Amino acid sequence: MTPRLYQDLAHLWPCLSPPEDYTAEAQIIHDLLTEHFGDRRLNLLELGAGGGHTLYHLKHHHNCTASDLSPEMLAQCQALNPEVPTIVADMRSAQLNQTFDAILIHDAIDYLLSIDDINQTLRTAHDHLRPNGLLLVAPTETADTFEHASATDRHTTDTHDYALTSTLERPHTPHTFRLTLDITITDRATQAAEHITDHHTCGLFPRSAWLEQLHDAGFVATPRETQLTWTLFHAVRP
């Protein structure tokens, strides 16, 4: 089942996780692109771009294209980034009829629940990259470092206060973790509050499995350490 946050609740995304929260990770991605290609404007594709909050920063440096399985999320992306082309497609099987200098897949890859899904996605990326193209893959969690955790983020608009509590748990099923989002929306004028819970099932694989699949898909890949908590794989198409 597709989480509600990517369907009927997609309009909440800019309030729960605003673009300014993505400044640091966008800078890390831009720095890695510059390290590989030098300081030039690239044709960049994000698979699983969601609301386009990372591309909001990267579009100032690169020619960006956004692809996602959710039309509702891409509508948010287009509202935020009207100059960025959007394409509704499944990252496992997309055929975009063009190639790119670089491809980014961030936390959308968390929703792949099997090794076969990962392999299909990495092959899709390989097919859409030019020679010496760079793929950056950044799953939120890996099995090597996963820990149960809970954190709350709060944001405010002129009319409402938003609280988003994210809880990570490891269920009794192999290769998955559960992300539970508890959302509270409070009307600032009346103090009336609405509570929403949205459940997400995500894939959880060790670094060795990611590297094996990247190599199998034709990449020269290494994990890269960053200042942020997620793991990032730097993969070059020869």
β-strand amount: 25-35%
Strands ordered across the widest β-sheet: 3-2-1-4-5-11-10
The total beta strand count reads 11
CATH superfamily of the largest domain: Vaccinia Virus protein VP39
Radius of gyration: 18 Å
> Kindly state the mean pLDDT as a whole number?
96
Look at the helices and sheets and give the structural class.
alpha/beta
The level-1 CATH class of the largest domain: Alpha Beta
Tell me the series of helices and strands, N- to C-terminal. Answer: HHEHEHEEHEEEEEHEE
Concise account of the structure shown:
The protein has 238 residues and is of the alpha/beta class. The chain is built from six helices and eleven strands.
Give an overview of the whole structure.
The chain is an alpha/beta fold. The protein has six helices and eleven strands. It has helices at residues 13-16, 23-37, 55-58, 71-80, 115-127, 207-216, and strands spanning 43-47, 63-68, 86-88, 100-105, 129-137, 149-156, 160-169, 176-187, 193-203, 220-224, 232-236. It has a seven-stranded mixed β-sheet with strand order 3-2-1-4-5-11-10, sandwiched between helices. The chain has a four-stranded antiparallel β-sheet with strand order 6-7-8-9, with no helix packed on it. The longest helix has 15 residues, at 23-37. The N and C termini lie far apart (37 Å). The relative contact order is 0.16. The mean pLDDT is 96.
